[in-house]
Amino acid sequence: MRLFLTSDSFRNLNTETKNKFWKLVNKKPKETRVAFIPTASFFKQNKSYVEQDHQLLCDLGISIQNIIDIELDNHITYNTLKLFDVVFVEGGNTFYLLQKTRESGFDKAIAKYLQKDLGVYVGVSAGTIIAGPDIVIAKPYDDESKAKIKNTKGLELTPSIFLPHFQKRDKNIIEKYQTKTTCQIKPLRDGEAVISDGTHEKLIS
Question: Which residues have C-beta within 8 Å of that of residue 75, sequence separation ≥ 6?
C-alpha cells in the first residue's frame, strides 16, 4: 500500500520530497496515468486551486492527456481505478467527499486498488483527512450540512488522522478533538508530506 498525503498538493514541496513521490510511483512521469478526483471542491465558489493542481501535475512531467478527471457522482469500481498509476484526491469539503466515496463505491474500490499495490493514493487536504480512520477533525473547518452521513468513519487507509494546513493556532483544536477519538491526530503543515504503507507513517518536511 502506497500513500502520499499532503496539505496543499505539490505547491510548496521541495525537490527532495518530489523525488520521494516519484520513487513511490516507480514510473517515468510521461508514462504515469492519474485519476484526478475533484469531487470535494463541489461547493467551493473559487475552484482555481483545482486547475492549479492540474498544472502542478503537469509541472512534474505528467502529460495532460494522462490526467483524467473522475467525479464520484458515478459508480467507481476497482476496474475503473486499475487503469491508473496515481489516484489524486483533491481537497474541499471533507464531509461531502466522504458521502460521495460511500455512494460511488470508491471506498471499496480504492481499498482493493491499494491492497493489490497497483499505484499511489495522493491526498490533498480533505483527500488526506478522509484517508484516515475518522474525519472528526474536519468539524471546525468544513460545513457538515453539505453532506448526509451517519458517521464520520474514514477510509481507514492510515492509522492516524492528519490535520492539513496546521498552524500554531490549531494546537487547541487538536487537543479538543483528540478526546473524541482513540486514533492519534497529527499536524500536517503546508509544504509537508506523509508517506505511508498503511501501517507506518513517515513525515517529510
Answer: 104, 105
